[in-house]
Design brief:
heterodimer, A: Rossmann fold, FAD/NAD(P)-binding domain, 5 domains, 5-stranded parallel beta sheet, 18 helices, globular, B: mainly alpha, Fumarate Reductase Iron-sulfur Protein, Chain B, domain 2
Chain lengths: 664, 131
């Protein structure tokens, strides 16, 4: 028989205003096993905790029931108190009489009645509690960062600075991500390459960082502290260790008609190419879909001109296997496809472009060497219309747009408009907006400068349709404040396309068993208090894969994710959660129901020898739970048809005892 | 018009059209897209706002109600799925139906047809002008 102490907290007036705490303590005294019961103003305070410790010693308590706030709030606090008092932390039960009682009820009698019932349920459970000890597992002191944009680079640099080895897996032939494609960055207008490329070089030169470019993660196994990852490094047909990045091959290759993805297909490069001048690693790569040598064995020019002998037409994909303690997802974003918005005529006219295409058109390393020229005829545009929220905040356009605000468009459009007016003062610039959303340090000031100093015409209203006609773009839009419909003959229309998570994120989330929202953004463990951790232990989130973000925010989050990774890697061993599933092998019939529902892959099956009643032995297939991987969700205990699966700390009989106590 | 009469009319229009004007985020794309904009005294986004706030009286006496071509461009392009044309149609019906007479019969249709006329415009017109 347990000796149970019940401690009822007032939580100031939070509980005491709606629950007669003294009555609860008195009622608890009548329950079997309760040898001590009291109430106190703030149980979580030092004085309150000391009261618990003294009571444990004085009354030789073996189990504690704390009637207080939600266990999410202070369960850990009271478990520590129990440990300090010398009893197992898992002999503590919390009766939530605040969030689930005093805060939802208005009158004292109802609140008190319910609080007493909740206390009785917790007491009934403690009777069946058993001491639990968390297991320990070793931590592999190496991190994996998936995605080599600014988020991944910053996370990797910070982890490496703390002295831990990091691998960056990047799907493109170079790291740099979206930021490498940008021209200037708001709100300070420094050039993106000038601030990004030094970081890319830092990453390449850091002895703790290994960049695995042109690669993707294929398989993830294991658990926090002990992940095992299989990475496929695609053949680039160039020996990375030998290529000097001189670029001679990229000038001599006769296949000149390969769309340049880095410039969003607005110009071409050769079949062997280096994505851009500051690429890291600065190593050429052959596009096998266009290379004559790889397609039909006729050419070999690059191999002939390469003085380093780096070309290797026989190179094959390489599989890299590595162990990691922590994994960071930094898979980033892409603009959505705007082709489905017929009204903006994106597929009808070359002069309707997306904002990212505009970035390349104004970038000195872009297809026009930084001169803003119309894609259709290479002329300088004199009237430019920017359309905001193309596909953002779009609740009705299933399959076309996104319901959320993409967050970065208001600022980059202000930047684009301002830069055009600065470089080409003879150009009229119109920005159609629904709302201008510019919260952020020096952000609204930046937008106001575009209006007040640079004379950008900001018009509250939306563009209804764009019609290409005689080399012009007829823009029909509403000006809501003037209550009129506008007709503008534009030379260039720039669409601020909504952003969405990269397509690689969803399959990656499946491999990582990390949860995602309906928009395919990774879900954080807590939207406010744990924003850089996935609910899956050991998986961290960096940058726009978690939600739309600008560069300053991305870098902050990247460093925050690194801090969390460093915190994990600095431990030699990890204490697990002892509230994990456990299979009763004698009852298990090996049906696999539990393994099928387990979202963490924690359940495997083993063949085990059992002694039968007739003294023979028999090999049976039974479930085995890896306690380090199990997160204690309890799905298996519900799925198990034979009742073999049970969750430590929340055993079926404990839950039934609670229900019985409530129903009595 | 009395207050509760207006409220009843508002309810009738919302129920008949199935439109929830509260979904409107005031982007003005409906008015930006409307081909009949210049013919109208009150424009599609104003229809939505006026019905939302219960300011329906001026709409009942305005010719704008009949200027909608039922092209449904606003319905197609509204990012929030507000469907202004449906609202205008319901308003129109609320005005014409109590007047008692059919302003159009199915027999009138063949004479009005031309090959550029979308089918939905004919159906819409019939709905509007028949009691």
């Amino acid at each position: 028989m347990q000796r149970i102490g019940v401690f009822v907290c007032w939580c100031g007036s939070n509980i005491a205003a709606t629950v007669d705490v003294h009555a609860v303590a008195e009622a608890a005294k009548l329950e079997p096993g309760v040898v001590f019961s009291t109430d106190y103003q703030y149980m979580c305070s030092q004085a309150g905790q000391n009261m618990i410790i003294d009571a444990v010693k004085e009354h030789k308590l073996t189990g504690l029931v704390i009637c207080s706030c939600s266990p999410r709030m202070h369960e850990a606090t009271f478990r520590k108190t129990a440990a300090n008092a010398g009893i197992n932390p898992y002999m503590v039960e919390i009766a939530n009489i605040r969030e689930q009682c005093s805060w939802v009820h208005k009158d004292m009698p109802t609140g008190t009645e319910k609080a007493i019932i909740l206390a009785k349920a917790a007491i009934a459970k403690v009777h069946l509690n058993t001491p639990l000890t968390p297991g320990e597992s070793k931590v592999t002191k190496r991190a994996l960062v998936i995605g080599g944009g600014i988020a991944g680079i910053q996370t990797a640099l910070d982890i490496a600075d703390a002295g831990y080895p990091v691998d960056i897996v990047e799907k493109e032939p170079t790291i740099g991500g979206k930021m490498a494609q940008l021209d200037k960055t708001f709100p300070t207008l420094d050039c993106a390459a000038c601030i990004l490329t030094p970081k890319m070089v830092d990453a390449a030169q850091n002895e703790n960082i290994r960049i695995i470019s042109y690669a993707k993660v294929e398989e993830v196994g294991g658990f926090v502290g002990n992940f095992h990852v299989k990475i496929r490094k695609k053949a680039r047909f160039v020996n990375e260790d030998v290529c000097t990045g001189c670029g001679l091959c990229t000038e001599k290759c006769p296949q000149k008609k390969v769309p340049n993805a880095f410039n969003l297909n607005m110009d071409n490069h050769r079949a062997i190419y280096i994505p851009f001048a500051q690429a890291v690693p600065k190593v050429a790569v052959i596009d096998p879909d266009y290379c004559n040598m790889l397609k039909n064995g006729k050419c070999g020019v690059c191999a002939k001109v390469c003085t380093a002998g780096a070309i290797d037409y026989k190179q094959e994909d390489q599989i890299i296997e590595e162990d990691y303690g922590a994994i960071v997802a930094a898979t980033g974003y892409n603009p959505i496809s705007v082709e489905k918005f017929d009204e903006f005529a994106y597929s009808q006219s070359k002069d309707v472009i997306t904002s990212l295409e505009f970035e390349r058109l104004t970038n000195a390393a872009g297809p026009t060497a930084g001169k803003l020229l119309r894609p259709s005829d290479g002329e300088h545009p004199h009237t430019i219309v920017f359309v905001q929220c193309v596909g953002s905040r779009c609740a009705s356009c299933a399959g076309k747009g996104k319901e959320y605000c993409s967050k970065i468009c208001c600022m980059y459009t202000a930047k684009h408009a301002m830069l055009v007016r600065d470089k080409y003062p003879d150009t009229e610039v119109y920005v159609f907006y629904i709302d201008v959303r510019t919260p952020g340090k020096n952000f609204d000031e930046f937008y106001r400068r575009a209006v007040e100093e640079y004379g950008v015409h900001y018009i509250k209203g939306m563009v209804g349709k764009v019609t290409p006609e005689n080399g012009k773009l007829k823009v029909q839009a509403s000006d809501l404040l003037a209550d009129r419909q506008l007709h503008i003959d534009a030379d260039l229309v720039v669409l601020a396309a909504a952003i969405e998570p990269d397509k690689s994120a969803r399959p990656l989330a499946t491999m990582l068993t990390a949860s995602m929202d309906t928009n395919d953004f990774f879900t954080e463990a807590h939207p406010k208090l744990r924003p850089v951790e996935s609910p899956t232990a050991g998986i961290f989130l960096s940058g726009a894969c978690q939600g739309p973000k600008d560069i300053p925010e991305t870098v902050s989050q990247a460093s925050a994710a690194a801090a969390k990774v460093i915190g994990l890697l600095s431990k030699n061993t990890l204490k697990g959660n002892p509230c994990v599933a456990q299979s009763d092998e004698l009852m298990c019939n090996g049906c696999s129901s539990c393994a099928n529902v387990c979202p963490y892959g924690a359940i495997t099956y083993v063949n085990k020898e059992f002694r039968m009643p007739d003294r023979t032995t028999k090999v049976r297939r039974v479930a085995s739970v890896n306690p380090a991987v199990c997160q204690g969700c309890g799905a298996c205990t519900v799925a198990c048809p034979s009742g073999a699966m049970d969750l430590n700390g929340f055993k079926n009989n404990q839950i039934m005892a609670e229900v019985d106590a409530i129903c009595k | 018009m009395e207050k509760n009469k207006t409220a009843a009319l508002r309810e009738q229009i919302l129920r008949a059209s199935g439109v929830n004007p509260k979904k409107c985020m005031r982007c003005g794309k409906c008015s930006g897209t409307c081909p009949a904009y210049d013919e109208m005294e009150y424009h599609p986004h104003q229809f939505v706002y006026m019905v939302e706030t219960g300011n329906i009286e001026p709409l009942l006496h305005s010719e704008s109600v009949y200027k909608c071509l039922s092209c449904f461009a606003c319905v197609e392009r509204c990012p929030r799925g507000v469907e202004p044309a449906k609202l205008i149609e319901a308003l129109c019906a609320a005005v014409t139906r109590p007047q008692g007479a059919n302003h159009m019969t199915p027999d009138d249709i063949p004479a009005l047809l031309d090959e550029d006329l979308p089918q939905q415009a004919i159906v819409s017109a019939l709905r509007k002008y028949m009691k």
